[in-house]
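Design job #97: recover the sequence.
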């Protein structure tokens, strides 16, 4: 059975897409730590543990995530883009990219902001536009 992230990457479940290529997909987290919080996934591998990925997929995922992070930083004002790989919530490898002003912004226990759908859509479009420039 396909994971929710596989269904998102296939377009079976709507998402706020920020980047895509043949192997990887990036979209806004629907329960973000901050505006622009992005999830980066492999499209064709559903393993839930990043270190189980084959070398090519692992390296490709990080290269794709780097490009997405550059676009994210250009589109969303922040001091840094933080990175986290937890893999506990959804059984599908994913990298969190989170715009940071402080280290505390990467605390997954904190209360999540309520971001309107229109602002999510505008942010996704801005990140995608920056990604396409790279």
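Job complete. Output follows.
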């Amino acid at each position: 059975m396909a994971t929710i992230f596989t269904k998102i990457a296939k377009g079976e479940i709507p998402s706020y897409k920020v980047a895509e290529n043949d192997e990887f997909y990036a979209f806004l987290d629907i329960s973000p730590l901050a505006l622009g919080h992005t999830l980066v996934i492999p499209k064709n591998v559903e393993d839930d543990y990043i270190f189980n990925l084959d070398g090519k997929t692992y390296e490709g995922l990080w290269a794709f995530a780097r490009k997405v992070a550059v676009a994210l930083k250009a589109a969303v004002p922040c001091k840094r883009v933080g990175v986290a790989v937890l893999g506990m919530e959804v059984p599908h490898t994913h990298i969190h990219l989170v715009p940071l002003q402080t280290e505390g912004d990467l605390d997954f226990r904190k209360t999540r902001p309520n971001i309107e759908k229109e602002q999510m859509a505008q942010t996704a479009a801005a990140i995608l536009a920056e990604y396409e420039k790279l």
